[in-house]
Amino acid sequence: MTNMDTLWLAPALVCYALSAVIFIAGRLTRTSRASGWAIYLLGAGVIFHALDLTARGFQAGNIPVGNFAQALSFFAWLTALASLLLIVRLQMAVIGAYSVGVVAATLGASAIMMKGGRIVLPASLQSVWLPIHVTLAILGFSMFVLASSVSLVYLAYESQLKAKRPLGPASERPPSLEKLDRINYSLLGWGFALLSLAIITGAIWADATWGHFWSWEPVESWSLTIWILYAALLEARLTVGWRGRRAAALTIVVFLVLVGSFVGVSLIDPGKHGGWFG
Amino acid sequence: MEQTLFILGVNHRTAAVAVRERLAYADREIAPALGRLKSHATAISEAAILSTCNRVEVVGVGADPVRALEEAAEFVAADRKVPLEAFADTLYRLEGRDAARHLFRVGASLDSMVVGEPQILGQVKLAYANAAEAGTVGLVLHRSFHKAFSVAKRVRKATLIGHGSVSISSAAVALAGQIFDSLKDKTVMLMGAGKMAELTARQLRSLGIESLIITSRTFDNAVGLARGLGGTAVPFDSYKPYLKFVDIVIGSVAVTRPVIAPDEFEGIIKERRYKPIFLIDLGVPRNFDERMNSLENVYLYDIDDLSQVVHKSRAEREHEAERAEEIVELEVEAFWRWMNGLDLVPTIKDIRYSIDRLRDLELGRHRSWLSTLEPAERTRVELLTRGLTNKLLHRILQGLRTSGVNTPDGAYAAEVARKLLCGEISATGANLEALGTDHDDEDDF
After folding, report:
1. Which residues of chain A have a CB within 8 Å of the CB of B184?
2. Which of A69, A100, A121 is the last residue of a domain?
3. Which among A97, A121, A145 is the end of a domain?
């Protein structure tokens, strides 16, 4: 375990965990009184975490995605940053219970898996395409995490309204269903665009390195599958008008497929993307 | 003579509406009634009558509260031609501090049927105005009512007692805000011309709804309402195509069965491409089939659902009321000290200010002459006038302090002095600037 590694990671993890606990408690007790603190903690976590990633990036000579643990950490950071923006800019503190929960859990898992020592990427992966391809892919994942968080909130609120139980006092009025649905839609759109670009840049990079765009390795196949699922989801919304509850539920289902496939693939047969396991 | 506040009355808790309606006064009857009260009752020196749907109260002042209360009860019985035995056991009789507390609680809407409803304060202000008009307001009532107004204001600011939807229409409007983000770009359809439906539409209008479609069995009614609310009237046999694009439908048509079948509506929902729609069913019998609530992105609330929402908010208000009671208690305490003259400070301050101002005015009038004087002479004049006002002030304050500081008489003396020296508007001369009714709450009780 090198010193640089742990200097910033622990405080980042503590901040995320506390922030998540406050958000979750607020969600359970249906109040938003303490959410200001949760937002500050999230911001502090993002800063500590950024310092940690920078330190690791200098060690790796590239963005720090040398193994699965590092990739998870990078994903946690992008998700935390995106959550923070969404929460502050669009007054969506209510999603914090989910998205910041995911951030804390992911970084926790990453910290447990994180092996000490210097991680250097193999020469074949040292390329300008690495940061582009990986950042696009991981940022796309983050968007899907946020979309799913918004969808969970939507489903909870919607069933409350259908069951004729309105959403608490006006002073703490949560976002309206219309707003949640709209945000879900735009997050899906962004996620889909990022995923598309990640696939394209990955193909270009593969062609440059190995001489072929596509090799039907597991991560590639699953990415394509998920791309098709998201495309269908967006298409159904635009043409048939699948929105609201149905769109929210499907957002969560597709996200579960995404998580299941990537975790499964990483454990069983990572292929070229197995660089993650260092 | 020790003047004490008293209140005699019935309210929604002590008396059934059958009793209350026999005792109630119409607004215009109150001033003449107070005139009769003044000429008949010898033990009552000041009086006001507060009469609403939920209460009839005589708020008065007398040196002998027991006798004053007796006279008030006899007066109400005679004036309303209801035998006293018929309502004697529904009457409450309060005096002194209890009466003040009651008046403050009523004004702060803590004694209302719907706790926190905003109308009562306006009604209390009206009672005061009527009494002022009849010339039956004296010092004690003047102070008591004005304090009640300020306590009400404070309670409303410091607690959530006025929050939540406590009426059907405001509950419906609040729900619309939970379904839709902005109401500006939404379209409302009003089906039927029921009073509550109209009220709901009005409230939605005030929140920014611009597009309003009105349909009614009687087309003329729809046209009339469209003119009043600013919308488009549509004949009742051709409203259905509009369901494709409206966002909120308020139903209050008199029907024997739902206006639209669930499967027909399902077709419309598909045509709308599942755009959310909020159905507010204010009709009895209901206008919409309750099964429609289970359709995708359809939110149907009937009158019972809305009542439930209202009940919940009311319960929350009751909770806030506990905090409000604490505020009232503190205010009663402070008020009582003030009433009994223990607190001369405000009066002394006013008198000092007033006398200083008189001096400044006089000096100002002679400014040009003063400027011709030598500096030493000018100082002399200043000292002379200052000495004069200080002596005067000292004498008045001395007199007030020795005239029995903690007796109501002392308070009277202070008030008289204040009136004479500060030229304050006389208590009976209706200090009505505070009488505008509050409309900061859109509830319709």
Report:
1. none
2. A121
3. A121
The domain tally of chain A equals 2
CATH of domain B168-307: 3.40.50.720
Report chain B's terminal Cα–Cα distance, integer Å: 42
Is pLDDT of B345 > 80? Answer: no
Question: What's the pLDDT tens digit per position in A107-158?
Answer: 999 988 877 666 666 666 777 888 899 899 999 999 999 999 999 999 999 9
Interchain CB distance below 8 Å, A166 and B171: yes
Catalytic choice (B12, B14, B29, B53): B53
Positive or negative: CA dihedral B66, B67, B70, B71: negative
The beta-carbon neighbor of B296 closest among A167, A177, A245 is A245
Specify whether B53 is catalytic. Answer: yes
CB contact under 8 A, A243 and B297: yes
Candidates B160, B165, B182, B274, partner chain A, best to mutate (most A CBs within 10 A)? B274
Q: Do B174 and A177 touch (CB under 8 A)?
A: no
Shared domain for A2 and A79, answered yes or no, is yes
Query: Which residue among B181, B301, B305 sits closest to A178, beta carbon to beta carbon?
Result: B181
Q: Where are the domains positioned within chain B?
A: 4-158, 168-307, 345-425
- A149-177, pLDDT tens digit by residue? 999 999 999 999 999 887 665 555 678 99
What ipTM does the predicted assembly reach? 0.87
* Residue B317 burial (CB count, 10 A): 24
Whole domain around residue A81: which residue ranges?
A: 1-121
Q: What CATH class has B4-158? A: alpha beta
